[in-house]
Amino acid sequence: MHTALAPFLGLTTSHEAVKQAEKLVMQSLGVIESVWLKGDAKFLLGSPQPSIADLSLVCEIMQLEMFGDEV
């Protein structure tokens, strides 16, 4: 997202910042999978149905998907 938005905002892009952000996103997704989606749970906290937290998380992840390989 940094490389896609920075030029529009008049900011310089930093390859190092992009790599750090990518690493942080991957770590965060790993925590979501290992802590919040335990076992066979399909939704956060093992709930049988989606909650506001699930919907919010989907929105955030979809924003990343929107940028595709530019993220």
Automatic annotation (TrEMBL):
InterPro entries: Glutathione-S-Trfase_C_sf (IPR036282), GSTT1/2/3 (IPR043377). This is Uncharacterized protein. It comes from Zea mays (Maize).
